[in-house]
Amino acid sequence: MSDTPAKSPQPVETSSAAIRPGEVPFATDASADGAPHVTAAQDYDAVLLAGFGGPEGQEDVIPFLRNVTRGRGIPDERLEEVATHYRHFGGVSPINEHNRQLRQAIEEEMRARGLQLPVYWGNRNWAPYLEDTVTQAAEAGHTRLLAVATSAYSSYSSCRQYREDFARAVLETGLAGVVRIDKVRQFFDVPGFVQPFAEGVAEAVRGFAAEGLTGGQVRVLFATHSIPTADAERSGPRELGLGDGGAYAAQHRAVGRQIMEQLREEGAAEETTAWELVYQSRSGPPSQPWLEPDVCDRIAELPGEGVQAVIVVPLGFLSDHMEVLWDLDEEAMEAAEQAGLRAVRTPTPGVHGAFVASLVDLLEERIHAVPAADRPHVTDLGPWYDVCRPECCENVRRGFSPAAAGVAP
């Protein structure tokens, strides 16, 4: 594949008003037919790493939180309550530095495989913004972009909103019809994403065993970000019928189950070491139902169940986001101390070699249109879709906005 920029296609009329149901707007030729998994190879110009964004100093915190909550009318006084979490760490979220490291690691792995595509990085809520990044790519002649969003699971905020970000970026910059954006599948169950979590749980189990804590004395809590239950029910294609919590909860449960079954088969965990899925970081009003149970609430209940040690696994996170550093390392560990429990938080994938390799595998499977049957996955839910289905991950409050990389509802 040549690294010489291809000639840009001529612009065509593509606006939000022009998008028709059943279309895949802003897609490359390989993805435009809307099939769940692509069957035609595609020559991409560049990779687009899409992040959430985060503040990098005290003066950034409130403007960043205004971006995160845009359109919700939340006053600065309430934002300052959340800002204290960032201010505790000098006003710096680790997420931007992580994405710099991840971008470099992806580039290095690609070069080692002979892939010469440039990797661009853009955020939803802080610089570098996606609109600027897409403009920069187009100016360099890179108009067929293959995106990797820094979130592994299916839900509005972790998948569809990134696809809306891509659509907004091309519409607001006037690049609709020039820039095409596809997105790799959700990677919750690719081997390289799961492996770092499994390694962390195994190490924690060994550590507690050395202290004489084994079996039912130890509980594994797989933690992820809570979301409104109404959004969770709409995560993933509705026809899958995945039950309470939709695809979002089902995917997390499947990965947690796979990790524990793997460790038991390897002798790294006992059959009596129980596990469960818990949630954290809810931010909605008390009147709005969100996914439960809360991690701290469950920790407080565990001593009454004979548990003496808890392993908290940040299963919903790629790296040590603020929600990990504050909600788990601070609040959950404090809850464990108050409950008289020994506690450890396991690592996130970060730039673990297996994780980075799996991300580049995802890029290559789209470039070469690897058949779905040959794609690696460790749960029965995978491999997930290349092109999101028409009603995937609706935001119940806002409905469907224009989105790339999926069939329009």
UniProtKB/TrEMBL annotation:
Q: Where does Fe-coproporphyrin III bind?
A: 93, 162
Compartments annotated for it: namely:
Cytoplasm
Biased segments, Polar residues type: 1-17
User: What Pfam families does UniProt report for this protein, alphabetically?
Assistant: Ferrochelatase (PF00762)
Give the family this protein belongs to, as stated in its UniProt record.
Belongs to the ferrochelatase family.
Instruction: Return the EC number.
Output: 4.99.1.9
Q: Which reaction does it catalyse?
A: Fe-coproporphyrin III + 2 H(+) = coproporphyrin III + Fe(2+)
Q: What keywords were assigned to this record?
A: Cytoplasm, Heme biosynthesis, Iron, Lyase, Metal-binding, Porphyrin biosynthesis
Q: State the name under which the record lists this protein.
A: Coproporphyrin III ferrochelatase
The leader peptide range reads none
Q: What InterPro entries does this protein map onto?
A: Ferrochelatase, Ferrochelatase_C, Ferrochelatase_N
State whether keyword Thylakoid applies. no
Which SUPFAM superfamilies does the record cross-reference, listed alphabetically? Chelatase (SSF53800)
State what this protein does: Involved in coproporphyrin-dependent heme b biosynthesis. Catalyzes the insertion of ferrous iron into coproporphyrin III to form Fe-coproporphyrin III.
Task: Extract the ranges annotated as region (Disordered).
Answer: 1-31
What residues bind Fe(2+), as annotated? 225, 323
Q: What parts of the sequence cross the membrane?
A: none
The principal localisation class reads cytoplasm
Q: Which residues form a coiled coil?
A: none
Q: Which domain of life is it from?
A: Bacteria
Pathway given in the UniProt record:
Porphyrin-containing compound metabolism; protoheme biosynthesis
If you read the UniProt record, what top EC class would you report for this enzyme, in one word? lyase
Protein encoded by which gene: cpfC
